[in-house]
Design a protein that fits this description.
Radius of gyration: 14 Å
Number of helices: 5
Shape: globular
Helix content: 40-55%
Strand order of the largest sheet: 1-2
Structural class: mainly alpha
Largest sheet: 2 strands, antiparallel
Number of strands: 2
Strand content: 5-15%
Order of helices and strands: HHEEHHH
Length: 150
């Protein structure tokens, strides 16, 4: 599978996550329910094939291996990402971020505060510092990709 094919194949699952799981997590006050949803999110997303698990896609700062694929459409000025990780919780957390960001144009993304993207979901107080660091590393990488496209 090529990078472009993976991005295309990922669009529908990220849209489904934005439509169903994102509101479910936001509405739930039960951490165990939120955790169960996070663990299941990664199953909805296509895994990276071994040829896409390249070193240049690895995220520095994650305890487990994690790969971020970025595609910028120069015509529409929109960004798309796909993500895979050996850690299911991190994969779920990043999926919640990507489902809110995929398809947005440069000018909107440049104005977003990525660090507060998931705070309304009430997740940070229950995830470990290493998972928080991994999530932040991915969000920082995404922000740098947006800046590079400007």
């Amino acid at each position: 599978m090529t990078a472009h094919e993976l991005i295309l194949q990922s669009k529908a699952p990220y849209l489904a996550i934005a439509t169903h799981e994102l509101p479910a997590i936001a509405a739930s006050s039960d951490w165990q329910n939120k955790y169960r949803i996070l663990m299941n999110l990664g199953k909805q997303l296509p895994a990276f094939s071994s040829d896409l698990q390249r070193d240049e896609l690895l995220i520095a700062g994650c305890d487990s291996k994690a790969w971020l694929l970025h595609q910028f459409d120069g015509i529409t000025q929109t960004h798309y990402w796909a993500f895979d990780s050996e850690a299911r919780v991190v994969k779920g957390l990043v999926a919640l971020a990507i489902c809110q960001l995929n398809g947005l144009p440069n000018n909107e993304l440049a104005q977003l505060d990525f660090t507060s993207l998931l705070k309304p979901l009430g997740l940070y107080q229950n995830i470990s510092p290493s998972r928080q660091n991994g999530l932040q590393a991915v969000l920082d990488k995404m922000a740098s990709q947006i800046k590079a496209a400007n």
